[in-house]
Each structure stands twice: as C-alpha cells, then as structure tokens.
Write a structure and sequence with these properties.
about 80% helix, about 140 residues, 7 helices, mainly alpha
C-alpha cells in the first residue's frame, strides 16, 4: 500500500463512509512503509477530511438552524450543542460517532481554530498510540 492510497483511505474513513483508516494504517506499516510516512499521510488525509466535514456543516448552517428551531426538541438540541460543542469534540476521534460530530461542529459554527486544534490533535494521537501498540 502506497502513501497516496493510505492518504485517500484515511480521508474517506473520516467522512461518513464506512472505511477503517486504522486497518489501512497498520497494513501500510506491515508492508514496509515507515511509521513516520504512515503517520504523515494518514493524519493528513484524516485532518483534511474532518476539515471538509466541518465546511459541509458550516454551509448547511442556515438550513439546519431553521429546521432545528422549528421544533422544541430541535431548539433544545441546538442550544445543547452550543453549550457542549467543544467538549463533544473530545469524542471526535471515536469510530461511528466521531465523524458526524465534525459535521455538527461546522453546523454549530464552532470556532474553526478550536475545532481543528482539538479534533486534529486527537486524530494524530490515535495513529501515534496505534504505532505504540504494534511495536
């Protein structure tokens, strides 16, 4: 598995598509890719994808807010998201729930610098800890 393939796989895995970047990451290392290259390309793909997710949510703001505010439960969820949005980003590295959280962060228009600082560092840390587990 080459660097570009790992990058693309990590990108797709950080969208709502059901891919496993961790499996691709480990396979790349097993097939002889250096740990540094694997971390660099997997992290870059993952971080670019969560940025894409954030932007997708950001541009859906008006439509999403209007829809949410049209119901009592939706309005409550919107306010809850604003109150706990940054805290919830600490779960954004998790499978299944993490990627939708990055879209919601954009939808809530959380500050991009904080979004990226929290989410990206956790994505990179995940690959780092994965390398520690296999070596």
């Amino acid at each position: 598995m080459g660097e570009v393939t790992l990058f693309i796989t990590a990108f797709l895995a950080a969208t709502i598509l059901p891919f496993s970047s961790e499996a691709a990451f480990l396979l790349a290392i097993e097939n002889g890719m250096s740990v540094i290259n694997a971390m660099l390309f997997a992290s870059a793909g993952n971080v670019l994808a969560i940025t894409f997710n954030y932007m997708m949510g950001y541009f859906l703001y008006e439509k999403g807010k209007t829809k949410l505010m049209s119901s009592k439960i939706g309005a409550h969820a919107f306010h809850f998201g604003h109150k706990y949005g940054y805290i919830s980003l600490f779960l954004s590295w998790l499978p299944i729930i993490g990627d939708p959280l990055t879209i919601v962060a954009g939808l809530l228009r959380l500050k991009f610098i904080w979004f990226l600082s929290i989410s990206a560092s956790l994505r990179v840390a995940r690959y780092y800890f994965l390398t520690l587990m296999v070596q």
